[in-house]
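Re: [ENG-882] Designed sequences occasionally contain unexpected residues at chain ends

Forwarding the minimal case from QA. Structure tokens:
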């Protein structure tokens, strides 16, 4: 295993990374600042970005910053369900036993949030999979113009398709209620280099193991997508350890990249 070979105390390039090891680059910092604004003043936030770009990492950092006695986060990724199924998961996440009909579930969510002294934050990941009717129903959860208490907030996180869905006329009322919109982009070449260095250092290893030209090649082949960077970098580490090399050179990269292609 390459961990011993490179004197690492953990796997450096993992998808489900611990909060303390998330690289807080400028993209992530910008997103966190916008979500903090939403926390104080908004009712709906929109977070988009292509798959593997780091939306989950941003959300994980945001959730870790919440004050426990002020907010109840409810994270949901099974968003492809019909509204009744989605609402049942929301109700369960709020600590209640779901009722049967969609109308009763709707009332149950509103009653639970309004009775509570803390703010419920619904985080709907993979939100581009939510059916059109579901988006309308979610908007109705926060559409009261009478109740001044913002006891329920929604974060919609998904791929770019979600923005196209929200441009439809039937979703204009929802789009107009979105107070924060943030699109998370891929890494620049400089950010890819910094990310590779940071992850190697975070596990007690040497950031000089990847040669500079290899870091650039990883950026080009991954298009700056962190998940792809993780896959390619891991393949390089495995190959280098197998060859008993303590440097990841261009030939090793060339051999490794074949394993990452489907």
């Amino acid at each position: 295993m390459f961990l011993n070979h490179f004197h690492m105390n953990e796997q450096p390039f993992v998808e489900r990374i611990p909060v303390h090891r998330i690289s807080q680059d400028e993209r992530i910092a910008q997103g966190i600042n916008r979500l903090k604004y939403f926390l104080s003043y908004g009712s709906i936030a929109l977070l988009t970005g292509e798959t593997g770009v780091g939306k989950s990492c941003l959300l994980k950092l945001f959730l870790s910053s919440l004050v426990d006695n002020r907010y109840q986060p409810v994270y949901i990724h099974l968003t492809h369900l019909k509204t009744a199924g989605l609402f049942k998961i929301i109700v369960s996440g709020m600590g209640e036993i779901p009722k049967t009909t969609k109308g009763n579930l709707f009332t149950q969510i509103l009653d639970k949030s309004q009775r509570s002294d803390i703010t419920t934050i619904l985080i709907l990941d993979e939100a581009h999979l939510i059916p059109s009717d579901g988006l309308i129903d979610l908007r109705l959860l926060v559409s009261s113009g009478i109740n001044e208490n913002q006891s329920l907030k929604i974060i919609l996180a998904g791929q770019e398709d979600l923005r196209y869905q929200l441009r439809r006329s039937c979703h204009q009322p929802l789009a107009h209620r979105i107070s924060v919109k943030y699109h998370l982009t891929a890494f620049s070449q400089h950010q890819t280099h910094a990310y590779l260095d940071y992850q190697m250092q975070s596990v007690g290893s040497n950031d000089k193991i990847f040669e500079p030209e290899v870091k650039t090649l990883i950026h080009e082949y991954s298009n700056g997508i962190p998940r792809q960077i993780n896959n390619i970098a891991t393949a390089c580490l495995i190959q280098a350890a197998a060859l008993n090399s303590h440097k990841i050179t261009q030939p090793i990269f060339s051999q490794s990249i074949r394993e990452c292609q489907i």
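QA comment: On inspection the terminal residues look reasonable. The domain at 26-183 is CATH 3.40.50.300 (Rossmann fold). Proposing we downgrade this to a documentation issue.
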